[in-house]
Amino acid sequence: MPGADPDPNQQKRKVDSQIDQLREDLSETNSTLAAAFTALQGTQAKLPGAQAALDQAQGAAARAETANAMAAQELEVAQANETKAEDELSATTRHIRESRGEVAQFAAQIYQEQGFGEFDMAMTSTTPQQFADRIALIGTVMDLQGQSMVALATAKASQTAQEDRLSAMRADSEKAKRKAEASLAAANAARDKATAAKTALDALAAQQARQATVVKAQSIAETARLQQMQVESNRLSAVIKARAAAALARARVRAAANAKAKADAAARAKRNQANHSGSSSGGSSGGGSTSNGGPLSPPTTLGWISSEYGMRFHPIQHIWKLHSGRDYAAPCGTPVHAAADGVIIESGYNPGYGNRVIVDHGVLNGVALTTTYNHMERIKVRSGRVKRGTVVGYEGSTGNSNGCHIHFEVYEDGNFVDPRNYL
Description:
The chain is an alpha+beta fold. The protein contains three helices and 13 strands. A hairpin with a 6-residue loop joins strand 2 and strand 3.
């Protein structure tokens, strides 16, 4: 009711449930963190190779640029040589044209004079000296004309050679230019590809580093939260133990008072018997209850024990941790019974425990005894007092479970203990 003190047992159950969930979350977070760092290390391991490939591609591109520059210079030289060759070819062509004119003129003269002009000039000489002079002049003219013919033939041969040389120079220049351009294009493409690969790896590494940082921060926060919850659990455990000690003291006071009352009643009865001597009395004493086994009954007698209390390798989380109870495996829907008389202090769904009922059995042998029934398919009784054997729910596989079973826990003063100690 409003204003009533909160039940520390119930508070501690809730805190311990949160601790279990935090531990599961922390385990998953740490696994994610390990995967994130592994991926980051894998990416970082590729970076040196990518950088080396980029350096190699950049070096090849630089060399290709140098070769292209040299090819451009060579092309300029070749173009200058082509220009020079073109000028020489033009001069040769003019020379040939002039030589052809001279030869044509000589041929026309021979044709006009029927080939006898110089001979007639020699035969009409009036003196031997004049004849000799004219013969010598005719020889000189003939030599000059012969030289003109030879020069014409040489010039034509030179023209042909110059044309061939110019064509070869143009072909070589064009070939060198295409080769240099192709090498430069290939080098630039390789450099661009290597740059893109390195950029992508850098971006991936940065993204993975950010993810690892986020997950690490989450792990730190969950660890801190777990520590805080553990402190709260320890505080509640101390409160529960204090309450249990107080309850035990009150029980001892009541037991002493009952013993005194019984002693007083026995003394009065003895006095009464002495006062009524001679009278007879008879009777029988009866008494007490017998118990089969321990103070707690198993939550079910069907199925089998699939896992005992103690350290084990968790089948879902794949880590070694305390198995805090005893598992009874049976088909889903099998009834689950209260282990002893008590009061339901909590019931409902928990992310780790699934459908769960917690029963407080009060103080037994000086300790506050509590039992929990977990992973149930559904809950039948959610509040109030229960008797030993009352059906509180039905076996299932809710929460963090991998098959139909009931996970049965026993707490002493809020601490896990082996259920077999009480069965």
